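Data availability (excerpt). The following record was deposited with the supplementary files.
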Amino acid sequence: MSKHGRVLVAMSGGIDSSLAAVMLHEQGYEVIGMTMKTWDYASSGASKKETGCCSLDSINDARNIAVNLGFPHYILDIREEFGDYVIDHFTSEYLNGRTPNPCVLCNTHIKWDALLRRADKLDCEFMATGHYANIRHENDRYIISKGKDEFKDQSYALWGISQKNLSRTQYPLGAYTKPEIREMASERGFIELLNKPESYEICFVPDNDYRGFLKRRVSSLEEQVKGGEFVMDDGTVVGEHEGFPFYTVGQRKGLGIALGYPVYVIEIQKDKNRIILGTFDELSRNGMYVHKLNMIKYVDLGDQRYDAVTKVRYNDSGTASVIEQVGDTMKVYFGKGVHAIAPGQAAVFYQGDDVIGGGWIASSFNQNN
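Predicted structure:
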C-alpha cells in the first residue's frame, strides 16, 4: 500500500479522467482504474457509429493508459442497473410532461454507488473522477465548490452525491483549467487524447434524437399521445402537436407553427394533452419549487432565507435568488424573470463558489412584486 492510500479512478477513456488517474499515480497513490459499461449502442437502435464513454475504443484507451503506467484496470458492467433506473426514469419523465436530466441522475444514483461498492471490494479508501470541481471538509460537511475553470466547471452535475460518498471522493482536476490539463497531457506524450473529440451527448441517445429513442422504447407511444392541441396562453388553438413527450419547455424550433412571430413552449399540460405556446416574455418566471433536495453545505436552512445564485440548467450562468426551505422542498424567488424553467431539470443553489445543495424542479410560478 502506498503512503497516500489506494484510490479507484473512474476512467472513461477521455483526456480528463485519464489525467486524473495520471496525476494521482504521480502523487504516489496506488491507483486502480475502472471503466463503466453503462449502455450498448446497438440496443438503442440508433444509426450513429458507436462513440463515447461506453465504446470499445474508449475502454481500450483507458486500459492503455493503465498498462503504460503500470496500474490495474477493470471494466465494470452496470448496464442492467443503469437501464432499470436511468433509462426507465428518462422515459417516464417525458411521458409525464417533464424534461429529464439523465447525466445528473446517473452520477448521483448509479455511478458513485456502483464504484464505491467495487472500491470496497478492492480495499480502496477513495474514488476519484475527472470532473472539474473541488471538495473540502468544513464544519463536519463535505462541500462541493466550483472548479478553477469557469467554462468547464461541473459542480452543477454533482449536487446529488451523499455526504457519505463525498467523504471518499477526490476531484484531482478542480485546481486546473482545461488548457492546463491539455498541456499536461502533451508533456506526457498522450497525443491521442489531445486529438480525441469530446462528447456532449446523452450516452444512450448517440444520435441526439431523443424523439426516435422514445418511439423505439415505447412502441405504442404515438398512439397514446397523438391528436393534442397547440394552444396560446389565452386559449386560442393554433395547431396540432405530434405528442407532448416530444417537446420541452423553452423549445422554439421544430414546432411547425407559423404565426408571423417567434413562439415558445411555455407549459406542457400532460393530463389535457395540450402544449401551451407563448412569446419569449411569456416564457419568463420569477419563482419555482424544487423538491427531492440534497443539501451539501448545510444540513438544512431551517427558518432562514438565504441569498443564493441558482442555476436551472447545466450551461446556465445562474441568477440571483432568495431560497427558502420547507421540508424537502425549496421555494426559490428570483429577483428578475428566468426563462425556460423546465420541470424535471436539476436546480442547484450556490453561495459564492460553494454548492449549498440542489434538487429537481417541480414547477415554476410568477409572483407579483
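Summary of structural features: The mean pLDDT is 91.
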